[in-house]
Amino acid sequence: MKDLNSLLERTFRDSFFISSISRSHFTQKEKYAIPGILEKNWSEIERKINLVKSFAKVVHIDIIDGKFAPNTTFMDPKPFTKYSNDLFLEVHLMVENP
């Protein structure tokens, strides 16, 4: 796991944040590096999803409305549905009205 995290951190250091968690929908006590995406532009989100979908089971998406937190990100959930069969999309809603 340490080698995988090191590789991911070197590869995606400027574009992604990496978290390692144990999730109940995976085999118990397995740990996974989860790439996270924080972007305003759908083409950049899609590019990053395509970079990781061959080895990641989960992708973390941050949604920020500019009210709850000062930044803003891509806000439309509809385009993500095309990846719903391939990935578990974990979403962090930093919005005033979820």
Mind explaining what this structure looks like?
This protein is α/β, with parallel strands linked by helices. It has helices spanning 2-12, 42-52; strands at 16-21, 32-37, 58-64, 88-94. Strand 2 (32-37), helix 2 (42-52) and strand 3 (58-64) form a beta-alpha-beta unit. Mean pLDDT is 77; it is low at 11-25.
Jot down its keywords:
2 helices, 98 residues, single chain, globular, four-stranded mixed beta sheet, alpha/beta
* Sequence of secondary-structure elements: HEEHEE
The major sheet is characterized as: 4 strands, mixed
- Residues in helices, as a percent range: 10-25%
**Which regions contain 5 or more consecutive residues with pLDDT less than 50?**
11-25
Tell me the radius of gyration: 14 Å
Distance between the termini: 34 Å
Strand content: 25-35%
Global morphology: globular
Q: How many helical stretches?
A: 2
Number of strands: 4
Mean pLDDT across residues: 77
Classify the secondary structure makeup into a structural class: alpha/beta
Strand arrangement in the largest pleated sheet: 1-2-3-4
Write the layout of secondary structure elements.
Layout: H1 2-12, E1 16-21, E2 32-37, H2 42-52, E3 58-64, E4 88-94
Parallel strand pairs: 2-3, 3-4
Antiparallel strand pairs: 1-2
What is the structure about, briefly put?
The chain is 22% helix and 27% strand. The chain is of the alpha/beta class.
